[in-house]
Design a protein that fits this description.
By secondary structure, the protein is of the alpha+beta class. It has two domains: 82 residues, Rieske Iron-sulfur Protein; 206 residues, Naphthalene 1,2-dioxygenase Alpha Subunit, Chain A, domain 1 (Alpha-Beta Complex), CATH 3.90.380.10. Helix content is 20%, strand content 32%. The chain has six helices and 18 strands. The strands form four sheets. It has a seven-stranded antiparallel beta sheet with strand order 12-18-17-16-15-14-13. A four-stranded antiparallel beta sheet has the order 2-3-4-9, with no helix packed on it. The protein has a four-stranded antiparallel beta sheet with strand order 5-6-7-8, with no helix packed on it. α2 runs antiparallel to α6. The chain starts with a helix and ends with a helix. The N terminus is likely disordered. The chain binds FE2/S2 (inorganic) cluster and fe (ii) ion. FE2/S2 (inorganic) cluster binds next to loops.
Length: 349
């Protein structure tokens, strides 16, 4: 008889998600005038902008012949299917059929709708029980607008269950993998706390970066300028997303978009703090805004490099699981036990 622990561990690779959360499904700039198709845990959703820029979310399936509505176009607040030109209101009702005969009525079809909001540069969708959408909020990202933070975004696309990505992000011992990118080193788990919504893991690590002079930003580009020094490294899985601080200079978010059991997308947002530059903060706001905008993406090469290495490992783990789902691994990091417990609790809610 297999032990319950083994079953617990392996089951996680097929678990679903808690739908009653807001999920970051796209960046705001990805949705222009053409409707955008996304998939959130098997659910195809079309996003489109109405006349005042408001975003609507409908099931991405035309009720007429089941083609994708996202191939159509937005007309004011309505969405027109590209095939026969049926139009739908943002409430999902059919409002117009171009060839409707005088003795015919509009079809009474009702497309499923999803609560959508645009916040902090991202489009968020709530796929669960609509009556609960107002009771929770999307992950807050105060640094997005704050003038003291420089952002870089990397998109993660991995052919693996989302649990592998979350575990990668919670296990800071994998700094070993990133040695050539010099992100952090020698992480040691100091403390751990968990509840039904989040897991917080507190590590002590060595950081390569110290952003205390204006030229320090160039450390992101030139390894020779980096010097190891101790910093606290705190990572939190705040279901369904991940947030991390490395000392005072770096904050990183990972906004997860689980697509299905074998595919996950996520946005990794890295913020470099400019808090140390008091002279900069005295300059006019327009200039600080200009600096924030101009330095956007400063850590792109570093972030993309880290993501590529992580994705390779995560996909290998997934493949190994598919080859032999019963095989048990050895785990030494208690943060991962807590992480799996939270995934499970949330998924079966
Ligand atoms: S399939 Fe959409 S209008 Fe016919
Ligand atoms: Fe990593």
């Amino acid at each position: 008889m297999s032990s319950p622990k083994i079953t617990f561990y392996h089951d996680i690779r097929n678990l679903g998600i808690n739908q009653n959360h807001w999920y970051a499904v796209a960046r705001s700039i990805e949705l222009k005038s053409q409707p955008l198709s996304i998939t959130l845990w098997h659910q195809p959703i079309v996003l489109y902008r109405g006349c005042n820029g408001k975003i609507y979310g409908l099931e991405d399936i035309c009720p007429h012949r089941f083609v994708k509505l996202s191939s159509g176009r937005a007309i004011a607040d309505e969405l027109e299917c590209t095939y026969h030109g049926w139009r739908f209101e943002s409430s999902g009702k059919c409002s117009h059929v171009p060839y409707l005969a005088s003795n015919q009525k509009l079809p009474t079809c009702q497309i499923q709708t999803f609560p959508v909001q645009e916040l902090n540069g991202f489009i968020w969708v709530f796929p669960g029980d609509k009556s609960l959408a107002n009771l929770v909020s999307p992950q807050l990202i105060p640094e997005w607008e704050h003038l003291n933070y420089i952002a870089t975004i990397s998109v993660i696309k991995c052919r693996a269950h989302y649990s592998y990505l979350v575990e990668n992000l919670m296990d800071m011992h994998h700094g070993h993998l990133h040695q050539n990118w010099q992100a952090w080193a020698a992480a040691e788990l100091i403390d751990l706390s968990e509840n039904d919504h989040q897991v917080d893991a507190y590590y002590q690590a060595q950081s390569y970066y110290k952003i205390d002079k204006i030229w320090s930003i160039s450390q992101l580009l030139f390894p020779a300028l980096r010097q190891l020094h101790p910093e606290p490294l705190n990572v939190s899985y705040i279901y369904p997303n991940w947030v991390s601080n490395l000392g005072k200079d770096f904050k990183i978010y990972c906004l997860l978009l689980p697509i299905n059991e074998r595919e996950t997308q996520a946005y990794l947002i890295h913020f470099t703090s400019l808090h140390a530059f008091w002279r900069l903060h005295k300059l006019p706001e327009w200039f600080r805004r200009f600096v924030k905008k101009s330095l956007f993406g400063s850590a792109q090469k570093l972030l993309d490099g880290l993501v590529q290495q992580d994705v390779e490992m995560i996909e290998e783990e997934q493949q190994a699981y598919l080859k032999n789902p019963q095989r048990r691994n050895y785990e030494l990091n208690s943060a991962l036990v807590s992480t799996q417990r939270l995934i499970r609790k949330q998924a079966i809610k």
